[in-house]
């Protein structure tokens, strides 16, 4: 196939989520008479990665959740973040973020288990997270009534730049705050 590098770049660029080597091979095999194997794809991806390392590019090739995705380099994060904040008027509610965090750390988990932890009904939050494709239904529990099990999705992994769930911050590393603002004197 002529210019295989450009074809692979086009696939990575066009993919909304990270794209795996096997997906790249499947796509290229559909349009090429030449045999495309994982060694060729891996070599080409390495070449693409080196190509965009330079200072003249604002993005780079990043390995995410078992695949590859073009992402803006960290030094441009404030600029891009400004655009996203400007355009993103509908954010997740605090309840939805709490529910998402519980699912991320306890998955697979049922809705009733989430409600036990939160202490309130979470129907709306779970529905919103499903609509935004941040969580998925992973099957049914063996518990009575066979409730649905929820896990985080590939989009969740991509959105939070995680390769695996092991990349989540450890709960012991997250420090609780007492509600005071930085620099504020607290009287006892």
Automatic annotation (TrEMBL):
Superkingdom of origin organism: Bacteria
Example of a GO biological process term: chromosome separation
Keywords recorded for this protein, A-Z: Cell cycle, Cell division, Chromosome partition, Cytoplasm
Record has Cell cycle as a keyword: yes
The keyword Cell cycle belongs to this UniProt entry's keyword annotation: yes
Transmembrane segments: none
Protein name, as recorded: SMC-Scp complex subunit ScpB
Source lineage: Bacteria, Pseudomonadati, Bacteroidota, Sphingobacteriia, Sphingobacteriales
